[in-house]
From TrEMBL:
Protein name: F-box/LRR-repeat protein At4g14103-like
Domain of life, source organism: Eukaryota
InterPro entries associated with the record: F-box-like_dom_sf, F-box_AtFBL13-like, F-box_dom, FBL60-like, LRR_dom_sf, LRR_FXL15/At3g58940/PEG3-like
A Pfam family assignment: LRR_At5g56370
Domain F-box: 2-50
Organism phylogeny: Eukaryota, Viridiplantae, Streptophyta, Embryophyta, Tracheophyta
CDD domains linked: F-box_AtFBL13-like (cd22160)
Annotated organism of origin: Vigna radiata var. radiata (Mung bean)
Amino acid sequence: MADLISSLPDEIICYILSFLSSQQVVATSVLSKRWNILWRSVPSLDFNTIDEDFWLHNGQKTVKKFYFSVGSFLVRRGDQPLHRFRLRCYPSMDITESIKTRIQTTLSGSCSVQILDLYIHPKDFFLPSMVFSFKTLVTLKLKFIIVEDMSFVDLPLLKILHLKYVYSLVEIDLSQIISGCPNLEKLKVSDLACEAKGKIIRLSKLVRASIDKLFLPLEIFKEVEVLKLNWIFQPNIYLNFDFNNLVQLQLTVALDWLLVLKMLNHCSKLQSLVICIDKV
């Protein structure tokens, strides 16, 4: 049988391999002399223990091996550009200062990255502030992480933004973050200690939004199709606009049925409604 894959140019093979985890990509190095170095040109880093069975086998030894693999991967691939950077792992004592430095250095130099997905415990890692000015970034997902500074955000191509348990060395202004993402299509914010002090631009392309507290003016969500709001207490809501495109709505309220009725009166196209009652 003809080896059709090996007949493909390196660029195509690297693109195909970029959809695999980094462990799987490196494993292809045993196939031939050509493949032995080909993996280093794959434009992605993808290490993830959150959804895998790492913890069912060797316990802490596996975590240590995981971080060693991340550090070794970064060293061996050198300065090759990254388009996808996905690193998700539970906290551990086995992440050394050298590996932390290596990860931060790689991130700082990844100005062409398009997808950034990080789930690293705050005690293990600080995210460089320059990440928030990467002009090529399309997807940004941050969970359980400390950012040096989020006071300046310039992400003109960003379409997906997820923030959960994100901390900063300076006060987080959510309005400033949102205003730096004019082409945002999907927004998810939860468990974020922040304020919204400034004026927010109109997010005309926003399609889906999930907010656990109403930090932002409700009007910026008026064009969305799917909306999830966790309102525990939100008295005296005044709506002078309609949700013209809203088809799915999920509300968490504290027995405030008047709030629900106010929302429904402005959702003429609504097809799906979920109401969660918080008895706090």
